[in-house]
């Protein structure tokens, strides 16, 4: 049912509304950067600011990766290696490069960054990913690959962890216990007096 | 031959969903599933965007700086949710600009509670507490949606809605601890909003007739089940602070294990679904005005985008 598909060609996007960026985020509790979603921005510079507003305004990210979708390739873990190699060879020239490898390990779960790998071009990187899938049969469902150079990193504490009092943006900024106790007392007293 | 193929594939797809299968944006899907997702998520996105409007009216009238900051942050969240959801719709094939065009032309649908006018600061608290609580019940269930990108987006949205609910409950309890006039204002607000909350989750359609639920598993729970969950949690919370729910027939029936209530105003909901609710025209008009006001910003962004694309090419 599932078919191999390059993310960059799977969607029709209209150029005049900007391009789509895939967003990975990592907070203290996350062992690895995980896919948060995506956004559309007019250019890479604004994409960083949009990412901060959409994925970091409630201090939920220590680190955000912003990656143009056109640089990202999707690969199913059970894809036919020969067919993948043929397609990759037609797409990208074989220059040595570092790639970031992401994987989905459970249905419906977000993509996680796995590790970086050195390869002489996308075809070799894809072959390495499929090799990994064969070595760990049943562990990986699908992969994303992008050149490491395509990732813009946002980790400025001033933007992601502003040192101001932002209690109204935090769940622990609301403490209703005392107020609630007072309200309950009042209701009880009124009931008793009736 | 080709038709047979599509039907066989669709049947296979539905078996896959029935077994709890998850669908990603790049997977093959039947066109009917895609169209249902677009309709469902577009309405959700429209609701987030339109939901910001009644609250926006109160930013300048917030009683303290803290409430003003919190309300502004909530409104930013709601508009942010709209953007995340429009992105899902775009990836399914309908551009955001088309969704916004439909919305300001009065063709787009949005949730019933945003078709009403607001009259007092208590309305802001009741909306933040109860409308968001009702939404959380629906959205929690959507975390089990068959469409995985939607389910994952719900995780994020639910987390942010929980702030809104706390913010609203904090406001209402504060006012209930205040003067008689404040308590009366809150009670009047609850009286106004309760009928809208009772139809929030939609008619008690039998699950087997709800295609979004039964066929496509876009939703994971039936409308009535969601309403019961909402009542279970919120009725005691309202009563414990001294509020009276304006439905004399409302009571928990231990035998049936469910809440019984007076017949909700389905005729109002039907009118609203045609965008003929009490404040529909005003809201859509205001959205159109904002859209036109923002035209110059979109133009600047478009030029930036075209320049960037030219550089890449």
Automatic annotation (TrEMBL), chain A:
It comes from the Bacteria. This is Phenylacetic acid degradation protein. The lineage of its organism: Bacteria, Bacillati, Chloroflexota, Ktedonobacteria, Ktedonobacterales.
From TrEMBL, chain B:
Gene3D superfamilies: 1.20.1260.10. GO terms for molecular function: phenylacetyl-CoA 1,2-epoxidase activity. GO terms for cellular component: cytosol. One of its GO terms (biological process) is phenylacetate catabolic process. SUPFAM superfamilies: Ferritin-like. It holds the Pfam family PaaA_PaaC. Coiled coil: none annotated. It comes from the Bacteria. NCBIfam families: PA_CoA_Oxy1 (TIGR02156). This is Phenylacetate-CoA oxygenase subunit PaaA. It comes from Dictyobacter vulcani.
């Amino acid at each position: 049912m599932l078919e191999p598909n390059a993310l960059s060609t799977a969607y029709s996007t209209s150029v005049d509304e900007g391009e789509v960026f895939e967003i990975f985020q990592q907070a203290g509790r996350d062992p690895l950067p995980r896919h948060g979603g995506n956004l559309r921005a007019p250019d890479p510079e604004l994409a960083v600011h949009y990412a901060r507003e959409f994925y970091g305004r409630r201090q939920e990210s220590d680190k955000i990766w912003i990656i143009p979708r056109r640089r990202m390739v999707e690969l199913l873990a059970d894809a036919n290696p020969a067919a993948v190699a043929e397609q990759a060879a037609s797409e990208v020239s074989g220059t040595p490069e570092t790639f970031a490898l992401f994987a989905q390990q459970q249905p419906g779960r977000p993509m996680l960054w796995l590790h970086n790998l050195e390869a002489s071009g996308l075809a070799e990187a894809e072959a390495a990913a499929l090799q990994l899938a064969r070595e760990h049969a049943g562990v990986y469902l699908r992969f994303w690959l992008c050149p490491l150079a395509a990732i813009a990193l946002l980790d400025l504490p001033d933007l992601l962890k502003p040192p101001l009092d932002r209690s109204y943006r935090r769940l622990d900024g609301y403490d209703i216990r005392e107020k609630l106790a007072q309200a309950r007392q009042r209701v009880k007293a009124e009931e008793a007096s009736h | 031959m080709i038709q047979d193929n599509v039907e066989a594939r669709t049947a296979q797809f539905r078996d896959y969903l029935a077994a709890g299968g998850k669908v990603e944006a790049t997977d093959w899907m039947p066109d009917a599933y895609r169209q249902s997702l677009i309709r469902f998520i577009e309405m959700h996105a429209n609701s987030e965007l339109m939901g910001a409007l009644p609250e926006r009216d109160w930013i300048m009238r917030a009683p303290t700086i803290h409430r003003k900051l919190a309300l502004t942050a909530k409104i930013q969240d709601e508009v942010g949710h709209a953007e995340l959801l429009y992105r899902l719709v775009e990836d399914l094939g309908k551009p955001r600009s088309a969704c916004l065009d439909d919305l300001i032309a009065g063709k787009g649908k949005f949730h019933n509670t945003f078709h009403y006018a607001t009259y007092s600061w208590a309305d802001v608290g009741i909306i933040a507490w109860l409308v968001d609580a009702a939404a959380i019940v629906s959205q929690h269930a959507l975390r089990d949606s068959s469409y995985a990108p939607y389910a994952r987006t719900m995780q994020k949205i639910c987390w942010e809605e929980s702030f809104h609910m706390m913010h609203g409950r904090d406001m209402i309890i504060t006012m209930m601890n205040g003067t008689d006039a404040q308590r009366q204002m809150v009670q009047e607000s609850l009286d106004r909003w309760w009928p809208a909350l009772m139809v929030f989750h939609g008619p008690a359609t039998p699950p087997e007739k709800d295609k979004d639920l039964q066929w496509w598993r876009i939703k994971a729970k039936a409308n009535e089940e969601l309403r019961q969950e909402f009542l279970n949690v919120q009725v005691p919370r309202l009563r414990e602070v001294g509020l009276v729910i304006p439905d004399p027939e409302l009571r928990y029936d231990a035998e049936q294990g469910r809440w019984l209530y007076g017949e909700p105003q389905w005729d109002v909901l039907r009118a609203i679904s045609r965008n003929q609710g009490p404040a529909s025209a005003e809201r859509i008009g205001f959205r159109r005005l904002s859209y036109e006001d923002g035209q110059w910003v979109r133009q600047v962004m478009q030029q930036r985008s075209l320049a960037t694309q030219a550089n890449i090419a």
